[in-house]
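User: Can you write out an input/output pair for a complex, sequences first and structure second?

Assistant: Here is one pair. Inputs:
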Amino acid sequence: MKLNDIFHETYTALSANKARSGLTILGIVIGISSVIAMVSIGTGASASISSRIESLGSNLIQITPGAQRTQGFGASGGRGNAKTLTTADAEAIAKEVANVAAVDAQVSGRYQVTAKGTNTNTSVTGVTSAYLSVRNVEVAEGTFITDAQNNSAAKVAVLGPTTRDDLFGADATDVVGKSVRIKGVEFKVVGITVAKGGTGFQNQDDIIFIPVKSAQRYFSGDQYLSTIAVQASTQEEMTQVQEDITTLLLSRHKISDPAQADFSAMNQNDILSTASSVTSTLTYLLAAIGSISLLVGGIGIMNMMLTTVTERTREIGLRKAIGAKKKDISTQFLAEAVALTVIGGVIGIALGWLIAYVVNLTGLVTTSVSLSSVILAFGVSAVTGIVFGYYPARRAANLNPIEAMRYE
Amino acid sequence: MIKVDNITKTYGSGDMAFQALKGASFTIKEGEFVAIMGPSGSGKSTLMHILGCLDTPTSGSYFLDGKDVSTLDDESLADIRNEKIGFVFQAFNLLPRTTVLRNVMLPLVYAGVPEEEREKRATQALYAAGLTETHFTHKSNEISGGQVQRVAIARALVNNPSLILADEPTGNLDTKTGDIVLATFQKLNKEHGSTIVLITHEPDVAAYAERIITVRDGAIVSDVKNASQKIHAL
Ligand SMILES: Nc1ncnc2c1ncn2[C@@H]1O[C@H](COP(=O)(O)OP(=O)(O)OP(=O)(O)O)[C@@H](O)[C@H]1O
Ligand SMILES: [Mg+2]
């Protein structure tokens, strides 16, 4: 049989029972579109989580006081409670550890902040000038905190955009130069940072930056730090830098057993890999849900093909009697099954794409339909057709022509 | 062209075994018009299935055009059916929801004949079977029973087979349309020299053939020339 004839037979057979063919195709459409939509949501969610973690800064290693915890998010729980890291530790890291691009020493706390007639409760973070590069922060207006202001413990502040809006109103101009009172102490606003977006875990816009020495002098009253953020020169050196910092701090704190460390050094890559393992599990889960509907669609095809073979038993007998070979019959039925899945696959890909697009519009997740997931879905649909069409097709091909023609 | 020698056919096995053919032998020469007659259950269809390579004998030999076909496998039998034999069945001859023309072309589709040639040959066969162009594009369920049988004859002819086998081709037709179908066979036999084997249990139908083989209980009881062949012109 020629390809043209296979198309002809397939078209005739499928159009003979449009409702049944349509419903079977619908099963595949639902399966394929849910695979595409689910995977795109999953990969979109992973991508946005990764980019959010990366926006915290590049090649970042965070050292926080307190006992070593399991790696990942858990370590941030005790931050700031224990007092073990000092400004001297930060200076030692900058001086003695190789491949360090910048070191930022931080002291943070939440205080009541007031401006003329307004007040808010926000995170006040003492930082050094290095914060800018370590945390990928940009200044929108004015300047950031300078080393000179830090060394003199100047009473200057840089506001995050959300804090500025809270204190001065969203349409306020000329905020730089005005004053705010943090826990009663007056600070002069010297700059505003660019909005980074982000909600939930660590909002980087609702924040006030002041020199770290000012924070120690006016608020914490001691030499301790709540975080040391270190930027390694390159990503490849992060592990080495992390190890060197750990060794240095252990010796400075006179601790011999690393398990007893009174600080924890967390590599940004660790956070990323933990997060991505969580999100990839999520993606697999979503893909599995989609695959189940695809499987159900495949069973629908098998069901339809078996019914068709039974209904057309006499026709198959006649075809064989006038010279159709097993291969001709099995090709014909397999082609019908594959046609159903391919039509369903094409519509399903379009629908999945549309769902991903609509989800994108809602703004919940930035979905991304990858070419590989489209190819995969299309391949899976063709394979589904072959797998679920194979048994009915073989059954048709193996019919004995005489018995088939006698079938009632 | 057909030479069967002591063929038997046993259905089932053990206690359930039933011998439908008990050693039949005969030869049919090219261009003959033979009727195989016998009462119901005598083994006519069984014999026709073997002659038509739809089934193989349990024992004995069957030579078609000098070739022993009793030992061939399914795929080779399919080839022989496609190339050498044209079938007209008692019932269910045509594919439903399919045009007359497409039905007649079907053996050529399986033979791999190019599309343009198919249509030409199918049209010729349809004319030879006494159909006119108005019927060609009708679906097979939109024509009369007599026309169905004639389309089936056209399909049986389309491959220029050496043998046309017809199993009770008039069984579902009234006498008048039956006569037209039988006259069509006669014409093909006279004008095209087609070898025709007609299976029937009615003496009236067998009367159209030039030779009558009678089967009873799986054995051949008579094989005679039909002295009073009924001639019916279209
Ligand atoms: N597939 C089969 N399995 C078992 N027995 C069969 C089978 N086919 C036919 N038979 C038996 O073989 C015998 C001959 O059957 P066959 O169909 O050849 O009869 P026939 O002469 O064509 O009869 P009719 O004129 O009624 O069509 C019958 O007794 C039938 O019961
Ligand atoms: Mg019979």
